[in-house]
TrEMBL record:
Binding-site residues for NADPH, renumbered to this chain: N74
HAMAP family membership: P5C_reductase
Pyrroline-5-carboxylate reductase dimerisation domain mapped to chain residues: 198-298
Protein residues bound to NADP(+): I14, G15, C16, G17, V18, M19
Protein name: Pyrroline-5-carboxylate reductase
Amino acid sequence: MASQKQTGLTLAIIGCGVMCSSILEGVLAATVKQESAGTEPLISNFVATVQSAGSIERLKKQFPSRLKVLQGGNVQAMEEADIIMLGCKPYMAQAVLGAPGVLEALRGKFLISVLVGTTPDKLHDCIYANYIPSGPDDFCYIRRALPNLAASLGESATVAQASGSVAEEGKPLPAHFQAVMDFIFTSIGKIHIVPGDLYDVAGILSGPGAVFTTVAVDGMLDGAVQQGLKRIEAKRILAQALRGLAAILEDGQHPAVLRESASSPRGVTIEGLLSLEEDRVRHAYSKATIRATERSLNM
């Protein structure tokens, strides 16, 4: 249960499951770090809503202080908050955002959605269906973001959409809301802000794309085991090699240049690369990325 309210903004998480718990853990750690440095944190107060008594106990155990947990109580949490993160199941968005009192509770606030396949326009329609606004300030600001599984380790590559709903056209996100979004997602890794028409493909690279590479990892581990190396040792070696590869790519190295520089005449690297090309592995990964993006666009 949260103690005395402090001076910073209040963040409410509506549907605090596994992903939002990882986000909350990172934000709380960043907040404590700011306070320890003598800096007033952007966010000082935290509210989370869940549906079951078991989830309440989970959150109280994981976050024994500074978090106010409500069973249900979505509208109450939105009323108390300045920033609202929507983390419920995508199919629940209509029921959550269309509930009585939500429209008023969100007026002028900032809604960040981490729901898969749910655009800002869809969320806007859930809140404001059949509503005639009296002015532009009647609406809330809406953005969506997609963290990945590495959020729990502080290594997420979060993709965020630069634009909001159609109703926000010509109305930029206020700087203090942008600062809050940056703070939230840099507390669990890095944030990559992209235009709305590129959000789905960028999200595929960040989330499913990282999972796609586990197929390649498993294949190399199987080959190493067949050649006599223990799987646990092979995984340890390969994990470190992939960390190194990630650092090289982040440093600006092009994958083709890297392959060329590592391929000596009649060497082992070129032998393996030719085998991969023979089996059309590059095409398989391109096709998987395209197909997954198309599925995301049609959800």
